């Protein structure tokens, strides 16, 4: 765990150069339109789990939600806060350095992107989310599946991650179902230049609800 936090801390500075984190204005608009379509309502409190540098937290706040991003990496959270300030985001966007399993309060909606492959037990995370969300909450989880092997410091930090390389979408759907989210569906968002997913990886969007 500590190794993983150190890994994401190290990655924070250059993280915005990774695919999907340096969105063009057109790509940001396409993501905004997609998320506006998949969330049934756009108000209330939304939790962004493993928010990284806040790229998607800020985008989602523009839909109308009050967004709280949490991340175990302090460096990621520092960058997210700096980005929010730079963009003039109001009090409706906030960030905490916090493991998702330690969240408190109730949320009306949840977002996560490329986080479930980084946790040892996504079922446990789903249980936490269930405990801290309203009955009608929708969790949009975006995940990637790729043909990769742990490299660099991931060789050590990632060796105990059962989801390295990404979970098969059906496996993850079953995990959600078993842990309190019976109405879970997924669809591919691969190969969409408008969403910056035009690489060789498989990109999936889950819509998770009770
Ligand atoms: C691959 S990055 C994704 C960041 C961002 N969501 C994005 O789409 O670019 C995974 C992030 O999840 C964070 N993370 C991993 N496990 C976490 C946990 N249990 N609670 C909160 N954050 C976590 C990491 O620190 C890292 O910033």
Automatic annotation (TrEMBL):
It holds the Pfam family Methyltransf_25. Keywords: Methyltransferase, Transferase. Residues 47-126 form the Methyltransferase domain. One of its GO terms (molecular function) is methyltransferase activity. The keyword Methyltransferase applies. InterPro entries: Methyltransf_25 (IPR041698), SAM-dependent_MTases_sf (IPR029063). One of its GO terms (biological process) is methylation. PANTHER family: PUTATIVE (AFU_ORTHOLOGUE AFUA_2G14390)-RELATED, TRANS-ACONITATE 2-METHYLTRANSFERASE-RELATED. This is Class I SAM-dependent methyltransferase. It comes from Streptomyces sp. SID7499.
């Amino acid at each position: 765990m500590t190794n993983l936090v150190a890994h994401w801390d190290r990655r924070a500075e250059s993280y915005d150069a990774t695919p999907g984190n340096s969105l063009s204005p057109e790509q940001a608009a396409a993501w905004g339109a997609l998320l506006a379509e998949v969330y049934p309502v756009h108000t209330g409190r939304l939790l962004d789990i493993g928010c990284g540098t806040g790229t998607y937290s800020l985008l989602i706040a523009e839909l109308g939600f009050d967004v709280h991003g949490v991340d175990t990496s302090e460096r990621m959270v520092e960058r997210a806060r700096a980005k929010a300030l730079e963009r003039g985001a109001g009090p409706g966007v906030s960030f905490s350095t916090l493991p998702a399993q330690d969240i408190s309060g109730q949320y009306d909606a949840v977002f996560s992107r490329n986080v479930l492959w980084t946790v040892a037990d996504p079922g446990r995370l789903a249980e936490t989310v269930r405990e801290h969300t309203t009955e009608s909450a929708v969790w949009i989880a975006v995940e990637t599946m790729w043909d990769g092997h742990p490299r660099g410091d991931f060789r050590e930090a990632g060796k105990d991650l059962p989801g390295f390389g990404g979970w098969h979408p059906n496996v993850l759907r079953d995990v959600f179902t078993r842990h309190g989210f019976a109405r879970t569906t997924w669809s591919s968002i691969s190969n969409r230049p408008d969403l910056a997913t035009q690489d060789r990886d498989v990109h999936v969007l889950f819509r998770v609800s009770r």
